[in-house]
Amino acid sequence: MITIFFKRILLAIPVLFAVASITFFLIKIAPGGPFDADKAVSPQVLKNLNEAYNLDASNWEQYVDYMTGLVQGNLGPSFRFPGRSVTEMIATGLPVTFELAFYAILIALVMGVFLGVLAALKKKYIFRFYPNGNCNDWHMRSNIPYGTLIGFNFWNKS
Amino acid sequence: MKIKHFFLLLAFVLAGCGKSISPVDSSIESGVFHFGNGSEPQGIDPHVVTGVPEHHILISLCEGLTIPNLNSGGNLPGAAESWTVSDDGKEYIFNLNKNAKWSNGDPVTASDFVWSWMRILTASLGSQYPDMLYYLEGAEEYHTGVTSNFDEVGVKAVDKYTLKVNLKNPTPFFIGMLSHYSTWPVHKDTVLKHGAIDDRNGQWTRPGNFVCNGPFQLKSWELNNKIVVEKNPNYWDAEKVSLNEMHFYPVSNVMTEDRMFRAGQLHVTSTLPSQKCPIYIEENNPDLRIDPYMGQYFYRLNIDNPSLKDVRVRKALAFSIDRKLLVEKVTKCGQIPAYSFTPPGSNGYQPDTNIPFDPELAKELLNDAGYSESNPFPKLEILFNTNEDHRKLALAIQQMWQQNLGIEVELVNQDWKVYLSREMVGDFQVSRAGWIGDYEDPNTFLDLMRPNRGNNKTGWEDANYDSIVERANSTHDQAQRYELLKEAERILIDNMPIIPLYTYVRSYQLSPDVKGYNPHILDHHHPKFIYLERD
Known about the structure:
A: 2 domains, 75% helix, 0% strand, B: 2 domains, globular
């Protein structure tokens, strides 16, 4: 069990590395730059801006910079919000994301286990309930498939 | 018994629905102004940021030499209590207000302005608005690195409270430009305490660090939630400031903003959902405000495109558009049909150009250009950034061109960045565009179409037009100058590299409690004049 756990973690490293690299170059290929606007800035200003953010360096150099920063947890300054670092902006939003995710998983687990057990006992009931359900609450709609998913898992194992 | 319980419960629930006190209601007492500010501001460093939400916050925090008038028109004294202009219109002497203080109590001095203007002209800061000061002697040279000696730039502190500015040309709109935040001062010691002069990411703009000289000071800033500014007791005109606090909410969803306004959570909205505007007009909604605005919606024509090279074709396209119909049936929010590039009435300027709606004449022009039924005009593309309102307008124009000229038109919508880059490299035929004035003068429009201007984008160059605009801006006499600009405008419309469609309006909702928020052609509202009062 522990070996599987560590294997998974180790496997995630090359995956994250590949994802980060592909994203970096995808953004580079995409048209436009971070300072495009309705009112185009003069070439001189654009040059200054690119220098300020080291965007005048070669792609390779920028890539190495980006990856080094990433490993150190430094994602550099925000282009959109001068004066803020990307790491800081993520850090501001993360607690809220965690809180939302926590409640979502909590609800999904409780409802899921309950509905899953129900599904195991009365197979027909759950399949009838879902498509006919009049409930517009998104929790219900999104969690019932969850519930069946988790529930069926439990049921299969036991 | 059970039924009794039910009614009891119902009573409790209904009681909860009763009239509660909304933030707008309680503001009459507390003096808090709730401001729907569109999007999260990039920041509050006046030399680094660009954009409108940033302006709304900055105008409460910092003050330039002059401030915008309550109504449109000439600027009022700000950090400068008076100024004189030399006879040749090139030298300005500003007498600073000796009571003007920074929010930390330091006096605002002439050398603060010199240092601030040096900062925005420092190339490595990467400011996007240094050209606002290019009118100063030597400023462009300093910014582009021709000289590294700031003494050569035309701004000097004569003494502690006297600022001397030397311009390259008499620039009659110079005072007007001073209401743009790029010309506002920053507190030298504070900036340098948190970074170098050219540090874009200095932490001096954080609550607790921030020091500036406006009527309000920064109290708190919760990212993507709320910015709070409170009255600055050190402001020279503090007794005139009636509001105690201003709360800026970055609500980017216009429907959410509309709901917040109706729930009494906002005094003013940043805009209106476009589909609601005609409904509010019909309902005579007392909170609806439609103010004149110095902005123009137009189509750019790519002169370098083979089908659009001929001016007769461009005129045919322009003359076959029924602008009245566009504003009455498509935009439907009080917009004004446009027959010139500069919005009429910009600081007293009235362009005299006319673009007729004349399908017969248009057809004739197209025939003259060599197109007929046997040799039909090639398919034309209208490029616009993905947006429902742009699409609706393009659809109407597509139909007009098809009906009146028999031209097949295709609509091409692109993602914002793709649209911008296609416009930039000239990969378009007809492209949707908008322009909002930076200052109250026709030059903010006419300058755009001069050769080598990055925002011209049409490929149109006219030496005569260029020299007339140049001459106009060296003319000190305003009436004479406007005559020259009108002449330039006629040349522009006669060549039709752009097709003006309509003049924007500022449409938004404003609580009847808000006073002193008068229509302003640049949408500048100085918070010093705003107060809350219930009739």
